[in-house]
Amino acid sequence: MDAPDLKDDFYLNLLDWSSQNILSVGLGSNVYLWSAGTCNVTKLCSVGPYDSVTSVGWLEKGTHLAVGTNNGFIQVWDVARGKRVRNLSGHTNRISALSWTSSLLASGSRDREIHLHDVRTPAGITSKLLGHRQEVCGLKWSPNGQQLASGGNDNKLIVWDKVGNAPVHKFDDHCAAVKALAWSPHQSGLLVSGGGTADKRICFRNTNTGVTLSSHDTGSQVCNLAWATTANELVSTHGYSQNQVVVWKYPTMTPLATLTGHTFRVLYLALSPDGQTIVTGAGDETLRFWNVFSKSSSPQESESALNAFSQIR
C-alpha cells in the first residue's frame, strides 16, 4: 500500500478521519480522500506547484475539510461539492496543526502563533494565542470545546481557555517537542501528552486542577496518541527508535499489544468514527490500517483496507 510523497516530518499532521467515514491524507501538494464505505479514492485538491500540504483537519460534522499549507495558508473545502469555500491567511510560515470545535478552527504554525478562525464570519481570524517560542505542532480541542491544548517544539504544553483565550495551565516537564495530544472521552479534563526523542514519555494531566497525574517512559519517541471510545485504553505511535504502535490499558499503562510493520517513524495517526480501527502513516510512504479496538479479535492489520488504499499513486 503506497502513499508516495507522505512526508517524513515529525511536526506535520497529514491524516484525519471524518465522522462521515472519509479519510483525508496529504501527499505532497495534493489531498486525497478515501471513503471507507465504498473504498473509492478521489483527489480533492492540489495546493499548487509551489506549495505543499502540511496539515489536514475535518470539521466535526465531516462536511468540510481544512487544509494547511507550507506557505502559511489555509483552504477550507466543502467536500461534497468539491469546492473551496474559504481562504484563510495570517500566518507567516507553514501550518503544522489544525483542530476544529463547531465553526471555530484553531491553526498552529512554525511562526509560533495559534490563530482562531470563525469560518462563519468574513473577517477570518478572531484572535491570536501567543505562548510558544517555537513551532506549534500539536493542537486539540477538548470534547466540550471549552479548552484548547497546544504543544510545541519548545517542549511546552499549554492549555487555553476558549472564553477569554487565555492560558489556563502551562506544563514544561517534557524534554522534547510535544506533538502527541489527546483528550479522554471518558473523564472530563483528562489530557494525555507525549514527548519527542529526548523525552519518550506519556504524561497524564488533570486540566481542571492543573495537576500532572502520572508519566510513563515508553522508550521511544512519541508521535501520536488516541483514546479508545468504548474502553479506558489508548494507542500511541512511535518513532526513534522502535517505529511501533502500542495499545495501553489506562491507568495502569499495561501494554496490551505492540504492533510492528512500519520501517520508518509512525508519524501519523487517525481513528475511525466507529472507534475500532486506526490508520497509521510513516516516512516509509505507507499507510496501514489496524483493528486496534475490535472486541472480537486481537489487534491486527486489516488487509481489505490496505488493499483499498493501494489505489493512491
Task: Describe the secondary-structure layout.
Blueprint: E1 15-17, E2 22-27, E3 30-35, E4 41-46, E5 53-58, E6 64-69, E7 74-78, E8 83-88, E9 95-101, E10 104-109, E11 113-118, E12 125-130, E13 136-141, E14 147-152, E15 157-161, E16 166-171, E17 178-183, E18 190-195, E19 201-206, E20 211-217, E21 222-227, E22 233-238, E23 245-249, E24 254-259, E25 268-271, E26 278-281, E27 287-290, H1 303-309
Antiparallel strand pairs: 1-2, 2-3, 3-4, 5-6, 6-7, 7-8, 9-10, 10-11, 11-12, 13-14, 14-15, 15-16, 17-18, 18-19, 19-20, 21-22, 22-23, 23-24, 25-26, 26-27
Helix-strand sequence: EEEEEEEEEEEEEEEEEEEEEEEEEEEH
**What is the CATH first-level class name of the domain at 12-130?**
Mainly Beta
Stretches where pLDDT is under 50 for at least 5 consecutive residues are: 296-313
Strand order of the largest sheet: 1-2-3-4
Described by its quaternary structure, the protein is single chain
Q: Which bin fits the share of residues in helices?
A: under 10%
CATH topology of the domain at 12-130, by name, is Methylamine Dehydrogenase, Chain H
User: Could you tell me the radius of gyration in angstroms?
Assistant: 18 Å
Q: Which band does the percent of strand residues land in?
A: over 45%
Count of individual helical segments: 1
CATH superfamily of the domain at 12-130: YVTN repeat-like/Quinoprotein amine dehydrogenase
Strand element count = 27
Helices and strands: which structural class? mainly beta
Task: For the record, give the distance between the C-alpha atoms at the N and C termini, rounded to a whole number.
Answer: 9 Å
Which whole number gives the mean pLDDT?
93
Choose one word for the global shape.
globular
Taking the sheet with the most strands, its summary is:
4 strands, antiparallel
CATH architecture of the domain at 12-130: 7 Propeller
